[in-house]
Amino acid sequence: MQLENKVAAVTGGTAGIGRGIAEAYLAEGAQVAIMARNAEKAQKMMDEIGAGDRLIFIQGDAMSQDDVEGFVDKTVEALGSVDILVNNAGGAGSDLQPTVSLSDEEFDLCMKWNVYSTFWATRRALKTMLENKWGRVINISSQEGKQGKPVVTAYTAAKHAINGMTKSIAREVGEEGVTVNAICPGIIMTDVVMDTAPETAKALGMTFDEFIDWFTSETAIKRPNKVEEVAAMAVLLASEAGAGITGAQLSVDGGATQY
């Protein structure tokens, strides 16, 4: 029960990494608020987990500033605080094409979904954390936050930006008992990956299986990572055991990026 009496807010919390982190936090005793667009999916998740009033859903779109800031405010209203913020919402969107054909609109969309949503939520949550002299901000970045791959220009730029924000904000708030870190997962076979990987593979002239093999061949473990492996890192960073870790970009990518 490493997170007993703590309140966690997780954006994009109904599936994949977000859901995995929410479940891990509940198992460690936290109260958890999740934000996502799909209320039906959220209700299904809540029914399956059966955490009662320790898990609440607040509907919102990560690309809406009002929704993101409102999510933080409503979490405080409903659960009394925001001790842990997990900025998980984001993705590549339609940035699955060569740079020469990437439009301004598509680039802006990827930045808004990833970078702006992280900034909006963090800025809002820090007010409560700084008042409490305790807090954890955990940004879900990517191995593309440390390196580049073809046909994901905007996504790579966005994740590098998130890693940069992580470093800067950590320096600002470290003396106030607040840590800020990024987790950089490798490929994980979530629903989002299963939906987007075929399109990415096609843009690279590969089959789906060749694309997965390409990703896993760069790892030391020669397999995709698991949601549970990312969630375990998120628990560590949220707990007192992670109090000495801040400003870090921690890879959970099977050794693909060894720094």
Description:
The longest helix has 29 residues, at 104-132. The model has no long low-confidence stretch (mean pLDDT 94). Strands 3-2-1-4-5-6-7 form a 7-stranded parallel beta sheet, sandwiched between helices. It has 8 helices and 7 strands. The radius of gyration is 17 Å and the shape is globular. With 259 residues, it is of the alpha/beta class. The chain has a single domain, classed as 3-Layer(aba) Sandwich (Rossmann fold).
Q: What's the short story on this structure?
A:
The chain is 47% helix and 15% strand.
Category from helices, strands and their pairing: alpha/beta
> Total domains, how many?
1
CATH superfamily: NAD(P)-binding Rossmann-like Domain
Biggest pleated-sheet summary: 7 strands, parallel
Order of helices and strands: EHEHEHEHEHEHHHE
Number of strands: 7
How many helical elements?
Answer: 8
Q: What's the architecture, going by CATH?
A: 3-Layer(aba) Sandwich
Give the class-level CATH name: Alpha Beta
Radius of gyration: 17 Å
**What's the CATH topology label?**
Rossmann fold
User: Helicity level, as a percent range?
Assistant: 40-55%
Strands of the largest sheet, in order across it?
Answer: 3-2-1-4-5-6-7
Note poorly predicted spans. Answer: none
Strand coverage percent = 5-15%
Distance between the termini: 31 Å
Mean pLDDT: 94
